[in-house]
Specification:
Helix content: 55-70%
Distance between the termini: 37 Å
Radius of gyration: 23 Å
Strand content: under 5%
Number of helices: 15
Order of helices and strands: HHHHHHHHHHHHHHH
Number of strands: 0
């Protein structure tokens, strides 16, 4: 683009050449603006990492705002990004892609554009894929809240009023942070809180089903839903290591940097996308199976199921659609 612009600038002036030069200058200027926006997005996330006074939820809310501002600015300057809908419809299946709705579709497309841009950098430049990873977390959290916030609130409120039930849960699930699960939330629940409340709801539905609303019972009974121990463990990992861990305030903590292999594994876990034969390294498996809220026996079960099923793992979005989306209408804009 730059070479063509220089060539036209040195040619003898003509109306056609001048019009083309102006068009190229306009495109170049807008592409430069996109580059600035990408750098500013990374800078905003890095600045939030240094904030030791805000909670994880407060910082993630600001990350979401930064990602939305980035999307809005891209639209404002009139740069047409690639339409990734056919790609996602092929990978997830058209019914699943339709089910997640236009808001999540736009978010996933924004993240895909960031991912491919960062992937175009040489490895030696050490690109940090954290903005694209946090955008994935934003999409997943929105889908979880759309499907599960209402039943999770019902579970939380029912258990809060029952001291004996809380004691039973603490004894049966000693690794689970019950105070965190039952805490108040702002506009949205976090990935980790939803996962924990579905796990609590599964326990209550087994031993004290009369406490739960029909909606809550249906949510925890869905065979493909997050009450499944493997899904709970993966959601827990995504919430703690990706959503919260990537905005950690310790600058030298290696957790906050996201390289391409880690980003590819996140895409596998969330979307089931596995174009390059993504592996399941032992450190990642151990982080998932030894996560908070899991017993040793459950960790062994997770290890077996995830190891044996890794190659065909469909991703959390597809599993959520299988659990809750096939009986619902496509969401409207």
């Amino acid at each position: 683009m730059g070479a063509l612009k220089e060539h036209l600038a040195t040619r003898q002036d003509s109306a056609k050449d001048q019009a083309l030069l102006e068009a190229i200058s306009s495109v170049t200027r807008r592409l430069d603006e996109v580059g600035v926006l990408r750098r500013e997005l990374g800078d905003r996330i890095d600045l939030l990492r240094q904030d030791a006074l805000r909670s994880d939820d407060e910082k993630f809310s600001l990350v979401q705002a930064a990602l939305q501002r980035y999307s809005d600015e891209i639209a404002r300057i009139g740069v047409a990004t690639t339409d990734y809908s056919p790609y996602f419809a092929e990978r997830l299946g058209q019914p699943c892609w339709d089910w997640i709705g236009p808001d999540a579709q736009r978010m996933f497309s924004t993240g895909e554009d960031l991912f491919l841009h960062l992937s175009s950098h040489p490895i030696s430049s050490e690109p940090d894929f954290t903005p694209a990873l946090l955008n994935l977390c934003r999409c997943l959290e929105m889908i979880l809240n759309y499907e599960l916030k209402s039943p999770c609130l019902a579970i939380r409120d029912a258990v809060r009023r029952q001291t004996a039930v809380k004691n039973d849960i603490s004894r049966a699930l000693p690794q689970l942070d019950l105070d965190y699960a039952l805490a108040n939330c702002d506009k949205n629940m976090s990935i980790g809180q939803i996962a924990s409340l579905v796990r609590v709801g599964k326990f209550v539905n087994r031993f004290r089903p009369a406490l739960l609303t029909p909606e809550a019972k249906a949510a925890v009974a869905a065979p493909e839903g997050p009450a499944d121990v493997v899904q709970f463990a993966i959601l827990n990992h995504i919430g703690s290591e990706f959503r919260n861990g990537k905005i950690h305030c310790q600058r030298d903590n290696p957790r906050i940097f996201t390289d391409r292999p880690e980003m590819q594994r996140a895409r596998k876990l969330i979307l089931g996308i596995d174009e390059d034969g993504v592996d399941l390294p032992k450190p990642l498996l151990n982080k998932i199976r030894f996560g908070e809220g899991l017993s040793y026996a459950e960790g062994k079960e997770i290890e077996k199921k995830l190891t044996e099923g890794w190659a065909g793992f469909p991703g959390l979005v597809t599993l959520l659609w299988q659990a809750y989306g096939q009986t619902q209408k496509t969401r409207s804009a």
